[in-house]
Structure formats: structure tokens, C-alpha cells
Design goal:
alpha+beta; eight-stranded mixed sheet; 39 strands
């Protein structure tokens, strides 16, 4: 894994096949493995042979039978390579349903691609790829390849289930790690049916894992990432080398020590810039005030570029390079920001993190380089501040869904120290809406609405505000409204930047079907704008935990001005629903010709056992029913 923030290879298409000679007939697949399957892994053998602390060879052999169109994701063989990874052998063969070979991979079939997207990206990684397809299903792709790696910061993680496709079964898969004398393997097993078989062979320590007869895995609604559910084995070194750097890797302190060594002596700034920074902050005394001033300078004078060069993408640009070029990746910009703050007497620490709203937290029980990002920590006994250095728009000290509520590794003089970033609580992630609805006799309405989105609920609209022009903002807002027939007459988005930022959204709407007229009656669902519409299907046989990803709260207050001579014939009773997952309340009241609807829902982030899933479904069902409650108005 790199921090995000054509080299030639010699490839031999081997004359003597390394693909296993076996029965590739689709008819020999056990019937149980075909149920709900799109592809079947016939066999997959991975051998990781460590030569020494600085080099290893990986050998992979396998065969996959593709049963239908969805299984064709496995018809492409892709092997990454880079400065540190050299592909030496690559072979593949195609077999028909009867197990007869119909094609063998040729050198001309293999193409090389750069993984550099070209969009704010500088990368030195590539991929060798070949496609083997057959016009008739089922067919089998058998393959074998080998590569040498010289970046031993990373050992492989073995996943016997291919994660790229639901509906894949596995006949047999093995993983072997062979270690030389004097080097110790670290490993962590997750949901494995059988533990490791460890032996000694020829003075080497050999570790073997095997699975067989795995039926297709099907995901369940609200389940945690499959990475946390399916069987896998994580491995890592105790001692390693990459280029001229040597490291140990048994504790989080070791991880931080190596990263600090890899990036030392890169904080020097141009003297002229140091003078500028001191002049900018000469009237400020509080470290926070200095940090905010320089953070604003960083945002206005630099931009983010993903740079995956250097030692596995883990070594930073020098601070003076960033100053000169005006750009950097997460490593370079964090180094630069830390150097600028150091120049005005403010102490900070880089913090490694696995960032991303959809990314799982790191495994704290297995010290290793699990991170994909780095940002800056300004420590304080009362209120630690976290600085995202890659964004030109991020409010000072705001984490957002990108880096909140997860473990980070602080890089200190004493090595790495694990901390956890704060989680935003429900009423910090608040949507508060107020609307006036002038209702016409035919069910149409004009709506004047103000909604304030704060915390994590602010993020999406802040992105729209900064990334899109006015016309595209209007299109996005129109798509975000849950009304069937609506026109935006006017709109405005305004961001209030702070450590808990917010976006205020003001809309003027014309709604053609706010209510439904039937004779003298007008039927109105007062929750026009924020209904829970989908309800999961109950599942008494659920296998896995389920996860609610964010704390949040929504508060809605809508005032309806009724048409002349209309009175309420029916008003729903107030509703309150309480559960371990959250709470809900709504009410409708009438005062003269003004009908007021109030709603509040508060949801709690968490992971819950499978036995609670139907209780969650029932809670959602009750909320959805309450959200559909109708008011009946009648003309006098």
C-alpha cells in the first residue's frame, strides 16, 4: 500500500509449462459449488519465498472456470510491476467446457499500461495485462506467473475468496510462506477454517494454509466490509530492507521509527519564506492562531498532486521543493506545513492514517504499514487540532468523514504512538430545516426553505459548492430533492467555515403535487422533504453483524399555510419511537390556518449483532410508516 496523498522488464513466456496438468472440464466441478456461482476457483496456489530481509519471490498458479457474463471479470490477468517489482514469468491457457485447450497466451497478447491517471498524478507503477475469453460458457482460464519484490516493508495478505465478485466459489486454495533462518514471520489469521501448518524444511521455516470447498459468498445489507468477514491471513516481517534503509517491524513504535528515519532532514525551508512566516505571525501568540494563519497560507499557495515515486511512495518531497514548485502530495504538503509551523515555534507531528469514508480502520493488533494517507497533528492537553494539508477548501481543524473516528499513528521522536481521532456526535452532524409552504387548493405549493447542514452532513454540499458552477449546482440540488414534480425558482449555498463547519441552503420551490385533491378533500403528507422510503427485508437467518456508519440528527419544521376555507378533517397522532439504534418523533398541530409539522430523528453509529437485525428492520418500518402519515383537509 502506498501513501496517496516506462521502466522496461524482461518477461519470459516459458517453454516448459508451469500450469498444473489436471482435469479442467467444467463437468468435474462439485455440484454444491455451482449453486449461485458466476465463477469457480478450481485451484489457486500462492508461494511467498523470502530470500533475505531485502528480497522475496512470489509464485502464483491457478485456474478459474467462468460460468457466465458476470464471471468474465476473471478473464483478465493483470500483474502490477514497478521499480521494486520485476515480473519474470507469465503464462496462461484457455480451456473450453470439456477441458480441451483452445488457446495459449502469446507474447503479443500481453500489453503494458501505466497506472498513472495523468490527472494530478505522478506515478511509476505499471501493469502487465492479458485477456483470455471464449465465446461459449463455461470456460476456464489457467495461469502461472512469478515476480520478485525488493520492497520488503510489505508482506502479502492472502484472501482465498476473490473479493472482486460475489458469487465465486473455491475448490481449493493454498498459501505458503517460506522464511530463511534468522528471519521470523509475523501473521494474523482471520476467520480461517483451519490454523497454519508450520514445518521446517532444509533449514527454512515453512508456513502453509489451505482452504477447500468454499461455496459462493453473498453479501448482506448493512454488513461490514467483506474484508472483515471473509477468511484471510495477514503476514508481515520482523526485519526488512528497502533500498539502503533497514527497519524492524514488531511494534507501532517500530513503524513510527522507520517512517521518521525515512523522512528525516526534509524540513528545511528557504530563508526568505521563514522571514515571511515570522512577519505574518508576529502579532499572534497562541499556537492555534499561528497555525490557522499559516494553514490559510498553505491553502492559497499550494495544490495537491498524487506522487507515488520514491521508496514505495512513502518518502516525502523536501519542504523547500514544495515551496519552490507550489505542489505536493499528502507527504510533501504535510512535511511543508509542519516545517512552516516549526519556523514560527509551533510543534506538530505527522500522523499516518487509513483515510476515506469507505475505508475500514487499521488493525491495531498487527503493527504494519496499513496506511494510505498522512496529515498533521497539533497536540494540546485540552483540544488537539488535526490539519488536512491536501485540501484548498477544508476548514481549519475539521476532520470530516475522511479522517474522523479512526486510529492514527503519530510520528514522534520516540517512534510511533497510536491515537484515535474524534468521532462527530449526532447533534454535530445535524440537518436543521425550516420551511414555509403556501398550499393551493389544487395541491400545488410554493416553498421557501432554509436548511443548515453541519459536521459530516455538511461535506457533500460543501463539495458541490466548491466543485460545481451555478448551473450544475442547481441540477444537483434538483436531483437531491425527493419531490416528484418540482421546479427550483431560486437557490443559494453558503458555507460557514469553522472547526465544525456548516452549509446553509436556501431554496425557493414550486411544487405541483404537494397534496392530492379528491372532490372537496385535499390529502397531504406533511413530511414532504425527508421521508425514510426504503425498509430492509427481514432475515431471521442472518449470519453477520450489521453496521450503521454515522451518528446524525435531522430536525424538520414545516409550516403549511392552508388554502382559504379549508379545515382539518383528520390529523395524525404524535409519534415517538425509541430503540438502541436511535429515536424518532413527529407531530402535527393546527393553529388557525397554519399547520405545523415537526420531526426529529437521531441515529447512533455502531456495529450490532446479527440477532438484532430484525429489530433494526422493525425500527425502520415504524419510521417509514410514521413518515407517510397523512393529513386530510376538507373545503367548507
Amino acid at each position: 500500500m502506498r501513501l496517496h496523498c516506462i521502466r522496461g522488464i524482461v518477461l519470459s513466456i516459458v517453454a516448459a509449462s508451469t500450469i498444473l496438468a489436471q482435469n479442467y472440464s467444467a463437468g468435474s466441478i462439485p455440484a454444491a459449488l455451482l449453486i449461485e456461482a458466476h465463477a469457480v476457483v478450481r485451484y489457486h496456489d500462492t508461494e511467498f519465498h523470502v530470500r533475505d530481509a531485502g528480497e522475496a519471490v512470489t509464485r502464483i498458479r491457478g485456474a478459474i472456470t467462468i460460468l457466465d457474463k458476470q464471471g468474465e471479470v476473471f478473464s483478465t490477468l493483470a500483474i502490477p510491476y514497478s521499480k521494486f517489482i520485476k515480473v519474470t514469468d507469465m503464462e496462461a491457457q484457455l480451456y473450453d467446457a470439456a477441458g480441451q485447450r483452445v488457446k495459449r497466451l502469446k507474447r503479443a497478447d500481453i500489453e503494458s499500461y501505466s497506472t498513472n491517471s495523468g490527472n494530478n498524478s505522478i506515478d511509476d507503477s505499471y501493469v502487465k495485462a492479458a485477456v483470455l475469453k471464449h465465446p461459449y460458457y463455461p470456460y476456464t482460464v489457467a495461469f502461472s506467473y512469478e515476480y520478485t519484490t525488493r520492497n520488503m516493508m510489505f508482506y502479502p495478505t492472502w484472501k482465498p475468496y476473490p473479493y472482486s465478485l460475489n458469487g465465486t466459489s473455491v475448490e481449493k486454495s493454498t498459501f505458503i510462506v517460506s522464511m530463511p533462518a534468522g528471519l521470523t514471520l509475523r501473521y494474523k489469521e482471520q476467520n480461517m477454517p483451519n490454523p497454519v501448518a508450520a514445518t521446517s524444511e532444509g533449514g527454512r521455516s515453512v508456513y502453509r494454509w489451505e482452504v477447500a470447498g468454499l461455496r459462493p459468498f453473498q453479501t448482506e445489507p448493512y454488513a461490514p466490509n467483506v474484508e472483515q468477514i471473509l477468511p484471510k491471513v495477514i503476514t508481515g516481517p520482523t526485519e526488512f530492507e528497502v533500498e539502503q534503509y533497514k527497519g524492524r517491524l514488531t511494534t507501532w513504535k517500530d513503524v513510527g521509527t522507520f517512517y521518521r528515519e525515512l523522512n528525516k532532514d526534509r524540513q528545511a525551508l528557504p530563508p526568505a519564506l521563514v522571514s515571511t512566516l515570522k512577519e505574518m505571525t508576529k502579532n499572534l501568540t497562541a499556537p492555534t492562531d499561528k497555525a490557522q494563519k499559516i494553514y490559510e497560507y498553505l491553502q492559497s499557495h499550494t495544490r495537491y498532486v498524487s506522487i507515488q515515486l520514491g521508496i514505495g511512495g512513502w518518502q516525502s518531497m523536501r519542504a523547500d521543493e514544495v515551496a519552490a514548485k507550489g505542489y505536493g502530495d499528502c507527504k510533501g504538503l504535510t512535511t511543508y506545513m509542519g516545517a512552516m509551523l516549526q519556523a514560527v515555534g509551533v510543534k506538530t507531528y505527522p500522523a499516518l492514517v487509513r483515510a476515506g469514508e469507505d475505508e475500514d480502520d487499521i488493525r491495531t493488533d498487527f503493527p504494519s504499514f496499513q496506511f494510505n494517507h498522512i496529515f498533521l497533528c497539533l497536540p494540546s492537553e485540552r483540544d488537539t487540532i488535526w490539519l488536512e494539508c491536501t485540501s484548498q477548501n477544508n476548514p481549519f481543524g475539521y476532520l470530516g468523514s475522511f479522517t474522523s473516528d479512526r486510529h492514527v499513528l503519530l510520528i514522534t521522536e520516540e517512534g510511533g504512538k497510536l491515537l484515535k481521532t474524534p468521532a462527530y456526535q449526532p447533534f454535530e452532524n445535524l440537518q436543521r430545516r425550516q420551511a414555509r409552504v403556501d398550499l393551493a387548493e389544487d395541491g400545488g405549493a410554493t416553498v421557501a426553505m432554509k436548511t443548515v447542514y453541519s459536521g459530516l452532513q455538511h461535506d457533500e454540499r460543501a463539495s458541490v459548492l466548491h466543485a460545481l458552477g451555478a448551473e450544475d449546482q442547481k441540477k444537483w440540488l434538483l436531483q437531491s430533492l425527493s419531490l416528484p414534480s418540482v421546479e427550483i425558482k431560486d437557490f443559494k449555498l453558503t458555507e460557514a467555515q469553522s472547526r465544525l463547519p456548516s452549509v446553509e441552503e436556501n431554496l425557493q420551490l414550486l411544487v405541483r403535487n404537494a397534496g392530492t385533491r379528491s372532490g372537496t378533500r385535499l390529502f397531504l403528507t406533511p413530511n414532504l422533504l425527508n421521508q425514510v422510503r426504503s425498509v430492509p427485508i427481514p432475515n431471521a437467518a442472518r449470519r453477520h453483524e450489521f453496521e450503521l456508519l454515522n451518528h446524525f440528527a435531522d430536525e424538520d419544521s414545516l409550516e403549511f399555510q392552508l388554502p382559504t376555507n379549508f379545515k382539518a378533517e383528520y390529523l395524525p397522532e404524535p409519534t415517538r419511537i425509541d430503540s438502541k439504534f436511535g429515536s424518532y418523533e413527529s407531530s402535527v398541530r393546527l393553529a388557525g390556518s397554519t399547520l405545523t409539522y415537526n420531526r426529529r430523528i437521531v441515529m447512533k453509529k455502531g456495529r450490532y449483532p446479527a440477532d438484532d437485525y430484525n429489530n433494526w428492520v422493525e425500527f425502520r418500518k415504524k419510521v417509514a410508516k410514521a413518515d407517510k402519515n397523512q393529513v386530510v383537509l376538507v373545503k367548507q
